[in-house]
Amino acid sequence: MVARYYWTIRSILKEKPHLKKYLTRCRHCGILFFTHPRNAGRSDLGCPFGCRQAHRRKNAIQRSTEYYQTKEGMEKKKHLNARRSSANHLPDLSCDENDDLDLLFDRTTVCHIQLVTGLVEGRFIDLAEVYALLKKILRQHSIDWKQKLFYGAGNYRKNSP
Hints:
The structure is a single chain. The chain is mostly helical. It has a domain at 97-139. 51% of the residues lie in helices and 4% in strands. The protein is built from 6 helices and 2 strands; from the N terminus they run H-E-E-H-H-H-H-H. It has helices at 2-15, 51-68, 71-86, 99-104, 107-121, 127-139; strands at 23-25, 32-34. A two-stranded antiparallel sheet has the order 1-2. Strand 1 (23-25) and strand 2 form a beta hairpin. Helix 5 crosses helix 6 (127-139). The radius of gyration is 23 Å and the shape is extended. The two termini are 30 Å apart.
């Protein structure tokens, strides 16, 4: 999967070499990814494949922990817990047309697809276009040009060379 990802990046750069300045490396996992033009040249970015969210969540938990250990934070938490236990909220059952795609792709991934597609095509891509593209891709049947082999077909030689 990673080799295919890097092959795709190389093929994009071969066709559009001006996009190389938007390519950066994740400071956490080291993967290459395209970034927004305003972030070009930065080396302190996290990739949109999980590192960015993990770093943001870690910092949010640290800030929250520090706040709720103060006297003011303890009082607020006491109020929040009391209100939460007394509230009787019904779950929101609203239905969105992109709910099935939201289960497969998180919002960050969809936004990254929007960014990279916009960079490659050289125009602004609307989120509705990205969702339509993802729906189209998920509906397509794969065209597998490789012949299917039965289990163990590669082990027909008893003696190794």
